[in-house]
């Protein structure tokens, strides 16, 4: 069952205590994850105090979801995050990648018989790419809604 986490405030830096509350993960677990996941590199200041940026808070939530909600092992989550990283690189690859992205289904404005959904007009697009783009769009929408309520 997915845990409902609080909205991430519009701040530049977060302390480990704030991230702990925002992600429902104990500080010692965050420090351990820094050793296991190369994507987590918070800035360190005086006295080794950690300061996380917004994208790192999102990454921690993604890691938490993989481990606690989807049942991945540490190594499985690490591998999955590397796959996701390759999908990000896919977006930055240039014209060929943009042609592929154009073929990926978009959210339909017309309801289907089973409700609102995705147009499946691009069978060549893989499920993981569609899911990735859909998830990215949902995160962007959530960010916009969070900013509007702040």
Please write out the topology.
Layout: E1 14-15, H1 16-23, H2 27-36, E2 43-45, E3 49-52, H3 54-69, H4 74-91, H5 95-102, H6 127-149
Antiparallel strand pairs: 1-3, 2-3
Summary of the model, kept short:
This protein has 6 helices and 3 strands. It has 150 residues and is mainly alpha-helical. A 3-stranded antiparallel β-sheet has the order 1-3-2.
Coarse shape: globular
* Strand percent estimate: 5-15%
Query: Regions with pLDDT < 50 over 5+ consecutive residues?
Result: 90-125
Any idea how many domains? Answer: 2
What distance separates the N and C termini?
Answer: 28 Å
Strand tally is 3
What does this structure look like?
- By secondary structure, the protein is mainly α.
- It has two domains: 1-92, Multidrug-efflux Transporter Regulator, Chain: A, Domain 2 (Orthogonal Bundle), CATH 1.10.1660; 95-150, no CATH class.
- 55% of the residues lie in helices and 6% in strands.
- It has helices at 16-23, 27-36, 54-69, 74-91, 95-102, 127-149, and strands at 14-15, 43-45, 49-52.
- The protein has a three-stranded antiparallel sheet.
- It is globular.
- The model is unreliable at 90-125 (pLDDT under 50).
Give the tags.
mainly alpha; Multidrug-efflux Transporter Regulator, Chain: A, Domain 2; 3-stranded antiparallel beta sheet; 150 residues; 2 domains; single chain
């Amino acid at each position: 069952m997915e845990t409902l986490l609080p909205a991430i405030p519009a701040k530049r830096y977060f302390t480990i205590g704030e991230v702990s509350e925002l992600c429902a993960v104990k500080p010692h677990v965050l420090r351990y994850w820094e050793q296991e996941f190369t994507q987590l590199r918070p800035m360190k200041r005086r006295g080794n105090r950690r300061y996380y940026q917004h994208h790192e808070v999102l990454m921690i939530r993604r890691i938490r979801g993989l481990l606690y909600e989807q049942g991945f092992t540490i190594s499985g989550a690490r591998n999955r995050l590397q796959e996701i990283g390759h999908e990000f690189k896919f977006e930055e690859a240039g014209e060929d990648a943009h042609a592929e992205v154009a073929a990926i289904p978009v959210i339909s404005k017309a309801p289907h018989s089973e409700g609102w959904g995705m147009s499946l007009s691009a069978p060549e697009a893989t499920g993981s790419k569609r899911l990735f783009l859909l998830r990215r769009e949902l995160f962007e929408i959530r960010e916009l809604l969070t900013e509007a309520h702040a």
